[in-house]
């Protein structure tokens, strides 16, 4: 990885992490409710019956109210399970789903594990991000799981990253392996991007 890009990415991730840690409980709760509304509308817009999402950490915009409601109404939801080789396995979310702390302190579901190709069958992919830029390029948390997943999919469904409103930035540093997203979901809006130029 080129040194300047690595430093830029690290600095931006640290800034976003710090901003997230400063949010109050009330701000987090309001954001979770907004995210749930936006994701519900996105699922309806795409007519999705099967999606991939993730269990949010305590500092991420919460996906949990959305996930609980989606599973309760019969949506098939795949949740990621990290592997040592840098790929993601998947497990189907259940109403009473238990979870453990997986690699890097990220919550993961307990249940039957499906292989990496299970995600090829979803209608919509909802992923985490540290920041997204105005062209749809994503800054992740530096582990590469989602870049590998997206880069390996032959026919990717629409991919939306969940971020706070302030995390849509003018530009994120990027490298050849970085993958763009179709759009973003924030507590106040959903936005699709034109297909980015490489």
UniProtKB/TrEMBL annotation:
Keywords: ATP-binding, Ligase, Magnesium, Metal-binding, Nucleotide-binding
MF annotations from Gene Ontology: 5-formyltetrahydrofolate cyclo-ligase activity; ATP binding; metal ion binding
Record field: catalytic activity: (6S)-5-formyl-5,6,7,8-tetrahydrofolate + ATP = (6R)-5,10-methenyltetrahydrofolate + ADP + phosphate
Co-factor requirement: Mg(2+)
A Pfam family it matches: 5-FTHF_cyc-lig
A Gene Ontology BP annotation from the UniProt entry: folic acid-containing compound biosynthetic process
Enzyme Commission designation: 6.3.3.2
InterPro entries reported in the protein's UniProt record: FTHF_cligase, FTHF_cligase-like_sf, NagB/RpiA_transferase-like
UniProt family annotation: Belongs to the 5-formyltetrahydrofolate cyclo-ligase family.
NCBIfam families: MTHFS_bact
Protein name: 5-formyltetrahydrofolate cyclo-ligase
Taxonomic classification: Bacteria, Bacillati, Actinomycetota, Actinomycetes, Micrococcales
């Amino acid at each position: 990885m080129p040194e300047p890009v690595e430093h830029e990415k690290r600095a931006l991730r640290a800034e976003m992490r710090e901003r997230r840690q400063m949010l109050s409980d009330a701000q987090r709760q309001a954001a979770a409710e907004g995210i749930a509304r936006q994701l519900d509308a996105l699922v309806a817009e795409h007519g999705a019956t099967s999606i991939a999402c993730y269990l949010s950490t305590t500092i991420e915009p919460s996906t949990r109210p959305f996930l609980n409601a989606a599973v309760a109404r019969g949506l098939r939801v795949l949740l990621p399970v990290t592997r040592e080789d840098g790929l993601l396995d998947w497990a189907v979310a259940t109403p009473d789903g238990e979870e453990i702390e997986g690699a890097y302190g990220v919550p993961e579901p307990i249940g039957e594990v499906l292989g990496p190709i299970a995600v090829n069958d979803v209608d919509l992919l909802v992923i985490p991000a540290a920041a997204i830029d105005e062209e749809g390029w994503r800054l992740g948390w530096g582990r590469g799981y989602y870049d590998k997943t997206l880069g390996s999919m032959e026919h990717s469904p629409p991919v939306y990253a969940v971020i706070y409103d302030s995390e849509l930035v003018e530009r994120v540093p990027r490298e050849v392996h970085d993958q763009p997203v179709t759009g973003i979901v924030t507590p106040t809006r959903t936005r699709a991007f034109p297909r980015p130029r490489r």
